[in-house]
Design a protein that fits this description.
3% of the residues lie in helices and 40% in strands. By secondary structure, the protein is mainly beta. The chain has one domain (6-389): Beta-galactosidase, Chain A, domain 5. The strands form nine sheets. A nine-stranded antiparallel β-sheet has the order 13-14-15-16-33-26-25-20-23, with no helix packed on it. The protein has a seven-stranded mixed β-sheet with strand order 2-1-3-4-5-6-7, with no helix packed on it. Strands 22-21-24-27-31 form a five-stranded antiparallel β-sheet, with no helix packed on it. The two termini are 31 Å apart.
Length: 398
């Protein structure tokens, strides 16, 4: 039986590895709160430069895990997770406050859309018509443009969840916004489960043929926000192939093997082991900023995509998704100019992303999985980040 969720207002405020974990986010409902499995609280966070009020929301469970997010951009500001000794720390990077989320680059923790990742030349053709977008990454459009989903105020509501506590975020993007066709109605549900997983469910409908691609842009550091480099943390990616790019980081259309390249993470490998490799793809991206073509299981549900592990704290995150691809980014643009929410400056490799997605520039690459959405259709996508420690793990799924 689903548990009811509602509002509760508060002030601001060397181990063997295996196993997977799940996180689910669901939104809806409006009863005063207290779910048996956890709580959903909210409080004022501040106002935007345009004087729009922003709230911060907190999902908590009974096992020491907490997820905090903003109505601004759906930004996940904190994911507090216990280590092998039971000590909880925030494992995502963040900005110091609302002004920084509005004005500084990085997309920290945000919902990205309408189209996550890059669209080459800031344009695409659909139904014989060319749509011109706003270039914000050289000549290309990145993460939907300069005033995309990560800069919008989302409507947040509590919702019932089968195995935890959840909230939904809703936003209607008008026809022509950032150059994209169609009025797009989008809902994202964040669910914190009883077993320490964060599940993100995306859905969308349109009144006109359009393209969609959503992700969450959280930077993970399993040792804790502000602790420095993730170079010694280990990563496994369930992918035999990736999509090579040109020097502008737009895919060439080729799908290539990871075999014999620094992009081969089919076994747990430290992130920093090959970070300075002279492989041309690494030179183009200044590190890791690539789309892996995930090995997909049978069926339509989420399948295993990646595992990351910090041997110092014992924290593990497993990523499962319905998406065909995943962008891993090692924060190559972080150069010490941003003071983060932990009071330290952020530099390259202070975090890594697991951005589940369709492939970059898909509207211009007919051989890539389609990102088109038509009236009468409903887009659905699920990604799960399941947290655990190396104290007791089941095997890595195959």
């Amino acid at each position: 039986m689903a548990k009811a969720a509602g509002w509760c207002r508060q002030g601001r405020g060397g181990h063997a590895l295996g196993g997977i974990a799940l996180v689910t986010v669901i939104i809806g409902g409006v009863a005063p709160v207290m779910a048996n499995a956890g709580t959903l609280d909210h409080a004022p966070y501040g106002k935007t430069q345009a004087a729009q009020p922003v709230d911060i929301y907190t999902l908590s469970n009974d096992h020491g895990m907490r997820v905090r997010f903003l109505s601004y951009g759906g930004v996940i500001t904190e994911i507090d997770v216990p280590d092998r000794a039971g000590r909880a720390d925030n494992v995502v990077l963040g900005q110091r406050g609302l002004l920084e989320y509005e004005t500084l680059l990085g997309h920290f923790g945000a919902i990205t859309g309408r189209f996550a990742n890059r669209i080459g030349g800031a344009k695409f053709t659909l139904d014989g018509q060319t749509y011109h977008l706003i270039a914000n990454n050289g000549p290309n459009t990145l993460h939907g443009g300069p005033n995309a989903f990560d800069h919008q105020i989302w409507t947040v509501a509590p919702v019932a969840a089968q195995n935890g506590v959840a909230a939904s975020l809703s936003y209607v993007s008008k026809d022509g916004e950032q150059g994209f066709p169609g009025t797009l109605t989008t809902k994202v549900v964040y669910t914190l489960t009883d077993d320490n997983a964060l599940r993100i469910d995306y859905s969308a409908t349109t009144d006109k043929d359009t393209v969609v691609n959503f992700t969450n842009h959280s930077y993970f550091n399993l040792a804790g926000n502000g602790t420095g480099t993730v170079a010694d943390q280990l990563l496994l990616i369930n992918a035999d192939r990736y999509t090579p790019t040109g020097p502008d980081q737009i895919p060439t259309g080729e799908i290539a093997t990871v075999e014999g390249t620094p992009l081969d993470f089919r076994q747990l490998t430290t992130i920093g082991a090959r970070l300075r490799n002279t492989f041309q793809q690494m030179v183009y991206a200044h590190g890791y900023d690539h789309n892996w073509v995930l090995n997909k299981g049978s069926g339509d549900g989420p399948t295993f995509a990646a595992r990351a592990y910090d041997p110092h704290t014992g924290r593990v995150v497993d990523c499962l998704t319905t998406e065909p691809g995943m962008q891993v980014y090692t924060g190559n643009g972080l150069n010490g100019s941003i003071i983060g929410s932990a009071g330290t400056t952020y530099r390259q490799t202070d975090g890594f992303t697991l951005e589940t997605q369709h492939f970059p520039d898909s509207p211009n690459k007919p051989n890539f999985p389609s990102t088109e959405l038509k009236p009468g259709q409903e887009f659905h996508s699920t990604t799960i980040y399941r947290f655990s420690t190396d104290a007791a793990l089941p095997p890595i799924p195959h």
